[in-house]
Amino acid sequence: MRVKIVNKSSNALPEYSTKHAAGMDLRANLLQDVILEPFERKLIPTGLFIELPVGFEAQVRPRSGLALKRGITVLNSPGTIDADYRGEIQVILINLSKENFIITHGERIAQMVVASHEIVNWDEVEVLEETSRGEGGFGHTGKH
User: Fold this and answer.
1) Are 111 and 23 in contact (CB under 8 A)?
2) Residues spanned by the domain of 54
């Protein structure tokens, strides 16, 4: 699939780290380092602008290494970039650790997955079809 992209950063375009990776790394586009204090959240720019085809979205997700090793995650995970959005891709990061985290220019801060999605048209009804699960949820299927 081909996607139009404008790169206003000095970083390389997002790319897959391995042959079968689903996500591409997003890098911080910064003029100076950003300090993310414990439990603080900040919007981090990437300098990237994309034009997705209709029927597709880009999902911004945490990087597992940053989450495990440093306690850094994407606050609205996954963040959704819609096909009609033309603004800069920015990442809401939060520091869930007890130590400051310094974000530098070019650092891999998140990953982006491009995925197709359906457009839903609702059929309003009075009754839904019964299932064995019924209304059970929030851990209901794990109970015996």
Assistant:
1) yes
2) 4-119
> Given CA atoms 3, 13, 109, 23 in this order, what sign does their dihedral have?
positive
Q: What is the DSSP letter of 97?
A: S
The pTM of this model reads 0.88
Yes or no: say if 50 and 81 are a contact pair by the CB < 8 Å rule. Answer: yes
Provide φ and ψ at 23, rounded to 5°: -110, 150
pLDDT in tens, 33-73: 999 999 999 999 999 999 999 999 999 999 999 999 999 99
For residues 106 and 118, what is the distance between their CA atoms, to the nearest angstrom?
34
Domain count within the chain: 1
**Do 89 and 26 form a contact (C-beta atoms < 8 A)?**
yes
111 falls within a domain: yes
> Two tokens at 1?
């699939």
Helices (H) and strands (E) in the chain, counts: 1, 11
CB contact set of 32 (below 8 Å; sequence gap of 6+): none
- Whether 59 maps to a domain, the answer reads yes
Rg (CA), the chain: 19
